[in-house]
Amino acid sequence: MKLLPTRMRVLAVPAIAALTIGAADDAGPAIRLNQIGFLPETAKRAVVPSDSTVPLRWRVLDEHGKTAAEGRTTVVGADPASGDNVHLVSFDRVTKPGTYRIRISDQTSRAFAVRPGLYAPLAFAALNFFYQNRAGIPIEARYAGGAQWARPAGHPSETATCFRGADERGTLWPGCSYTLDVTGGWYDAGDQGKYLVNGGISLWTLQNLYERQAASGRFTFADGRARLPEAGNGINDLLDEARWEMRFLLAMQIPDGVRTEVPVGPLPSDDPLTLRTVDAGGMAHQKVADRNWTPLPTPPHKDTEDRLLYPPTTGATLNLAATAAQCARIWRSVDPAFAVTCLAAAKRAYRAAVRNPQVYATNSFTGSGGYGDNDLSDELYWATAELWATTGEAVYGDALRAMPARSAPAAEPNWGNVAALGTITLATTPGIPQAEAASARAALVAAADGFLAETERSGYRIPYATLDYPWGSNSSILNRAMMLGVAHGLTGDARYRAGVVDAMDYLLGRNPLDQSYVSGFGARPLMNPHHRFWAHQLDPSLPGPPPGVVSGGPNSTSMSDPVAMTMKGKCAPQRCWKDEITAYALNEVAINWNAPLLWVAAYLDGGA
Ligand code: 9MR
Ligand code: 9MR
Question: What is the tens place of the pLDDT at every residue in 548-560?
Fold first, then answer.
């Protein structure tokens, strides 16, 4: 990778090392750190772009200008992910609550806080994102944090039938003779599609956070603490939010006895596809979404497109099986009737997926995203693990023991690779037999060790050393942080917690763009995400994002939107990002990205 010129101005006095620190420019002071600050007892690090080859003197100054700590930077050197030469400042020993700045040579950082409770507002805001993206219910000012975010219900009674006719590749779909009432759930992202694949990982993450809090007894979102219509109903607010999505997933399940035409087996590359009739009872539709892409902006209540059910897939069905199984064990003690509903749906979905194991999403419809995945072995493993953890039934344990995914090294999860979700469940749910629990724990700790090793190769010191930044890279980093949090819980080893802090520091400003990727948090927060309602940049009468929304982040590998296209080949991976609403490959928001933000913020707040 070629080193690219950085945006900083380097003073041309190389003989005097202390002067070669990058100067402030429009990106702010050249000392990069978490813009919301630090908890008293965690790792504290800043990164300084500088070409100096010798350590630089730093001082941390308190609010009176007195030196609270001092030392010399560690020279890290050239960092291909950012294109910067960097130094590291470590000031863990500043633990006294207060407001500080870092001074290096003639540069002074922004003021930052050291204080307990720093992450609670972020955790609540990240949860509120899900309320704000609810379909089928009016978004009210009192819950949304202000009148600007209120809107009438989007798709308030969404009774949909199946797509019928020719798709983009000429395959002819038969439609169906039924409708499903699929009102509710969360919109996926900047678009208003509602997808089972992606709904699944997002819902799992909220439910998992609840399970961890139930196990520890420290509930961040005890009933009445969050801003939600359901607050005060006697049920934990995080569970209320999760149930909003769970009910939608349940509604997407096909009634028993339905036979439908779908592609069966690996998808050929030539179109149109040949469809075969299968027993689809218990399968789930891939998505309900607009027939055509709506323009930006389109507030949800102004969407005039047809809303259609798209063909059932094995992937969607396994997402339903996994999350409904998890739902069943969580709700057993809270609302037993809902738990029974979830378990019945999970088992029915699982049977349907086993009967139809290779019905893949074709990615051939306009108007919504594809979420196509041609390897469902990890989804099967995940669903099997969840059902086993919930029921203890031997049929699931036996199936699981026969699966290769079990011993695979654990990568951070994403919508298309969900094995880690099953492994976390096996590692942490009471009742899993010792052998399986131990191997799941070992796999997670090994993965966490791998992430920490990557920190050592990362200039900005994050547990993510790739030079190929994918679509939604911020969520890859957050999901790694979640796994590090799990490893911390399993081992008690503080190094894993420090890794979580490193990841969050990057998200909140310790990056080459000096950018907080989260709206409403930090000195330079996200302002213009790709979203059809938070579209202030295109229409001043619409709001910007509410606080607590994370951008997908730098994307150096699929630079397909109009903004990204102009940057292609010209940015170091961590710089392939722009805060522009039209930059959907760089700057969209999504439920599966905000979910790990919520998980990690709650964890850092002491609640996971
Ligand atoms: O707005 C859409 C966004 O939610 C998706 O992530 C993205 C990729 O599937 O597509 C966006 O929609 C664009 C479409 O793909 C092409 N025409 C312009 C659309 C609006 O930006
Ligand atoms: O998150 C998805 C990413 O992994 C894919 O590369 C990308 C293009 O297919 O699509 C992303 O998912 C989008 C979905 O298709 C539609 N809603 C918005 C999602 C986030 O951009």
Answer: 999 999 999 999 9
Domains parsed from the chain with CATH numbers: 136-183+191-432 (1.50.10.10)
End-to-end CA distance of the chain: give it in Å, rounded: 38
How many other C-beta atoms lie within 10 A of the C-beta of residue 309? 23
- Which neighbouring-strand residues pair with 287? 195
Number of other CB atoms surrounding residue 334 within 10 Å: 15
Per the listing, tokens 């395959």 go with 171
User: What is the phi/psi pair of residue 12, to 5°?
Assistant: -90, 60
Residue entry with tokens 């359901």? 230
Task: Look at 16-25, 155-164, 339-348 and tell me which has the smallest mean pLDDT.
Answer: 16-25
pTM of the model: 0.95
List residues with catalytic annotation: 191, 530, 579, 588
Distance 183 CA to ligand 1 centre (A): 23
State both tokens at 412.
Answer: 């951070």
Mutate to test the pocket of ligand 2, among 133, 186, 187, 188 (most ligand atoms within 8 A of CB): 188
CB 345 within 8 Å of CB 383: no
Does the CB atom of residue 378 touch ligand 2 within 6 A? Answer: no
In whole angstroms, what is the distance from residue 484 CA to residue 93 CA? 23
211 lines ligand 1 (CB under 6 A): no
The residue assigned the tokens 């003021």 is: 111
